[in-house]
Write a structure and sequence with these properties.
This protein is mainly alpha-helical. The chain has one domain: Orthogonal Bundle (Hypothetical protein af1432). Helices cover 59% and strands 0% of the residues. The protein contains ten helices and no strands.
C-alpha cells in the first residue's frame, strides 16, 4: 500500500468513524479488501482501485443532505491537494461519481476495469448477511418502517427519483438489493454474489413467515 493510499485511508477513517447509516468505516474497509481481492483476480491499477474504494462514499447523497454527484469532485480535490496525478485523480472522480446504484431502470456507466471492480466490491457489501444488516441500519437511521404490507416497491427510472424515495426497508430489497447480482461486472464478483443473493431470498421467506405468524 503506497504512502498516498495510507494517508487517504487515515483521512477517510476519521471522516466515517461515527456513521450509523451502514456507510461507516467498516463498510469502506470491507469494500477496500474485496476490491483488492477482485483486482488480484481481474487485474487493473491497484493504487487507483484502492483510492476509489476508500473514497467511494465521500460526500454521498445519502449522508450530505441529498446533494447528488458531489463526491467525485471532493475526491478529486483531496487527491490533487495530496499531489496525486490529475489524470489519475480524474479517473477516481469518474468512479466515485458512477459507483452508486441509481435506480432499477438506470443503466450503469462504468467502463474501466478499475471502476467495475470498485462497483462490484461496493455491491457485494450491499447483499448477503451484511447487506441485510446494513439495509435495516440505514432504514432505522432515516426513521423508516421495517415493512408496510401492501406498500408495493417501485422500479425507479431516474437517480433523482430513487434518491428521494422514502419507502420501507423490505421494499429496498426489491428496488435494489435483489437486482444487484445480475448487475455485477466481473466473473469473480458474480461467483461471490450467488451465495449472498440466495441468502437474501431465504431471509425474506423467513421474514414473511414470522411477520404473518406462520407457525406450521
Amino acid at each position: 500500500m503506497s504512502q498516498l493510499v495510507e494517508i487517504v485511508k487515515e483521512k477517510v477513517q476519521e471522516l466515517f468513524a461515527h456513521d450509523t447509516t451502514g456507510h461507516d468505516w467498516f463498510h469502506i474497509e470491507r469494500v477496500l479488501k474485496v476490491a483488492e481481492y477482485l483486482q488480484s483476480k481481474e487485474g487493473g491499477n491497484l493504487e487507483l482501485i484502492q483510492l476509489a474504494a476508500l473514497l467511494h462514499d465521500i460526500s454521498d447523497h445519502k449522508m450530505n443532505g441529498g446533494v447528488l454527484n458531489a463526491g467525485g469532485q471532493v475526491a478529486f480535490e483531496m487527491l490533487v491537494e495530496l499531489g496525486y496525478d490529475e489524470t489519475k485523480a480524474t479517473m477516481v472522480k469518474e468512479i466515485v461519481d458512477g459507483v452508486s446504484y441509481k435506480g432499477a431502470h438506470v443503466q450503469d456507466v462504468m467502463t474501466t476495469v478499475e471502476g467495475k471492480i470498485v462497483q462490484d466490491a461496493d455491491r457485494l457489501d450491499a447483499i448477503g448477511a451484511i447487506g441485510i444488516a446494513r439495509a435495516f441500519a440505514f432504514g432505522g437511521s432515516k426513521n423508516r418502517p421495517m415493512y408496510i404490507p401492501d406498500y408495493e416497491p417501485k422500479m425507479h427510472t431516474s437517480f433523482e427519483e430513487y434518491a428521494s424515495s422514502k419507502s420501507h426497508t423490505v421494499n429496498h430489497f426489491y428496488e435494489k438489493l435483489l437486482l444487484l447480482e445480475a448487475r455485477l461486472h466481473t466473473e469473480t464478483a458474480k461467483q461471490i454474489g450467488k451465495e449472498r443473493h440466495t441468502f437474501m431470498e431465504q431471509f425474506l421467506e423467513q421474514f414473511y413467515n414470522e411477520w404473518n405468524s406462520k407457525l406450521n
